[in-house]
Amino acid sequence: MKKTLNKIYKIVPVLLVTSVLLLSLLFGVFTTKPAHAAQITVRSLTLQAGTTYGGSTPSSVSGSAYVNHFFQFTLPNTLGGNVGSILFEYCTLAAGLTCTHPTGLDTSTATYGLDSGATGFTIVNGTNGAPYITRTAAAITAGTTVSYHLNHILNPAAANETFFVRISTFASTNTSGSAIDTGSVAASTAEPIVLTGTMPESLVFCTGATVSTTVGVPDCATATPGSILFNQLFSPTDTATAVSQMAASTNAGAGYAITVNGPTLTSGGNTVTGMAYGLGTHGVSQFGLNLKANTTLTSTVAAGIEVAPASNGTNYRGQAVTNFNTVDHFKYDATTSTTLNPVADSASGGAGGTDAQIYTVTYIVNVPGSQPAGTYTTTLTYICTPTF
Predict the structure, then answer these.
(1) Exposure class string for 89-104: b at 16+ Cβ within 10 A, else e
(2) Which of 55, 126, 242, 382 is packed most tightly, with the most Cβ within 10 A?
């Protein structure tokens, strides 16, 4: 009986030790496994322009170089927990135990802009460099893509400086407690490229038999020589016609005025009378012009064309002026070289610059039966005067 008791005594301590070891191992399994947040995926930070400056402008450019920060990312939220706040922590490094905010960064006046995916947040920016957005905690479906605009932020001061934003989601409404999901995004300021150019006072003006367009824009490089023949011999029973063209543009604040001067048609001592404003009449000595698309002239080419592009009062302001702007009515003051006939200006819509337009000038000649034979010529000079 004594031997039996001894055997039992020896066995019991072994069983107790074994039990203690098992308990210790089980305790280790549950207490030494680290809790960690899931990784936020497909994440980005786009630096967007503010009201004045480009998105990557460093704050050293100006104390008011405010820009907007646009975040996009996908939340794994694999555990399906509620999300009450999202922290955006600006750091000089992507990861680490501490976060050093970049010099010059200022999020203290950040505002909350457009959002999507998970909405209903407002911004809390009491801590510079660590703004967060908050709402009543609610679930976000795993894999949801969200986006948030944090506006009115000053970037770091240095140009070409890379900085990071650590993004963390929390169940709490004030970023307390353990993070649910985390991830970092990178962005960089950029040295502003300053381009400077000067637009001088400008006037482009040309005349010729024709002026054409290049890619739809009147082009003085296409102007042809200005030696022009009338469409037919002069006759007391028909009107001879001819056309020329000119183009003009300017950035002058008061626009431009176009005048023409020169003698009437002359052959030796014989002339064709410069006509008073009115209709052409067969059998009467008349030389006149206008800048309209006329209807009574037989030649389609010589009938004229309206100014093109047509005046719209904004960027196309050119138009024919009084006495030269009525269909089928013509005029010409045959004067000395110092007397000018105003034929067009850019007053449509008021003062201001105007893009290039092409004017077509139609000339007519009527003669009486007694008009002496000869070759009649004149040289007309068009002058475009801008007022800056």
Answers:
(1) bbbbeeeeeebebbeb
(2) 382
Would you put residue 320 in left (φ > 0), alpha (ψ -120 to 50) or beta?
beta
Residues in the chain: 388
pLDDT tens-digit map of 187-231: 999 998 989 999 999 999 999 999 999 999 999 999 999 999 999
Strand-pair category, 132-139 with 122-124: antiparallel
Query: Residue 255: which of 350, 334, 342 has the closest Cα?
Result: 350
Tens digits of per-residue pLDDT, 55-75? 999 999 877 899 999 999 999
pLDDT at position 5 over 50: no
Domains, the chain, in order of start with CATH, read: 38-188 (2.60.40), 203-386 (no CATH)
Pairing of strands 217-218, 341-345: unpaired
How many angstroms separate the Cα of 87 from the Cα of each of 133, 150, 176?
7, 12, 10
pTM: 0.68
Residue 346 has what pLDDT?
Answer: 97
The tokens describing 345, both together, are 């200006």
